[in-house]
Amino acid sequence: MSDAAVRCARGVAALVLAGTATGLAAAPAHAEEYRYWSFWTAEAGAHARSDWSYATEGPSTARPEDGGTVGFRFAVSADSARAASPRTAADFDTVCGGTKAADGRKRVAVVIDFGTAADAPEGETPPAAREKCARVPEDASAGEALAAVAAPLRYDSSALLCAISGYPAKGCAEQAGGADRETAGPASPGGASDSGASDQHTGSGGPSAGLIGGIAAVAVLGAAAVWQARRRRG
Asked: Is the whole-model pTM more than 0.70?
């Protein structure tokens, strides 16, 4: 490789790096928002709305203990940091205080917040919030507890929770602007796909321009470094 070639390689690397930086700077300042069911949990003994925690796994794998509380909230948000929690307090005693324990069964308080009219899909009205005590087998998941008290549930082909008690009537984790989930949409926390809870925004997939540019720059600079090493050995 000639000195001119090395200078050319370095120039290309500089241009790629500059383009990468420009691309990152030009990235959208805000993430797209989606309307979906988010999933929340609360530890035993919780009594306040502030006790809700965004779930780290989907309801099909989360297995609350007897005395646990799970919550579901339908709302519009871009990610878990901005997701709206249920507006009802996470209070097991209020929901399940009148339900007796039974051998081989556990009691799980299920709080369902259908959200606000502003977050509802066009033409739909959110039902009133519900609080139900599910008495289910000891190994039941949060999803099974939900199904026991709020059927019918609707899932999509990826097992993402789309509707609780038939709400919303159609659609699944749609972009608030109208794009559907097949184009871009949420994924549930921890990589599970069935929670409707999530860090929720994955985008449409594929490597970003910044990533591609960075890889190209590393390749060009690496080639120049190899040539220089060979030249020194020669």
From this structure: no
